[in-house]
Amino acid sequence: MKGIILSGGRATRLFPATISVSKQLLPVYDKPMIYYPLSILMLAEIRDILVITNPEFLPLYKRLLMDGSHLGITITYKEQTQPRGIADAFLVGEEFIGNSNISLILGDNLVFGQNFGATVRKAAQIKEGAVVFAYPVRNPKAFGVVEFDKTGKAISIEEKPEKPKSNWAIPGLYFYDNQVVDVVKKLKPSLRGELEITDVNKEYLKMGRLNVIPLGRGVAWLDTGTPEGLLEASNFVAAIQKRQGFYISCIEEIAYRMGYITKEQLFELGKKQEKTEYGKYLIELAGE
Question: Got the DSSP string for 69-82?
Answer without folding.
Answer: GGGTSEEEEEE--S
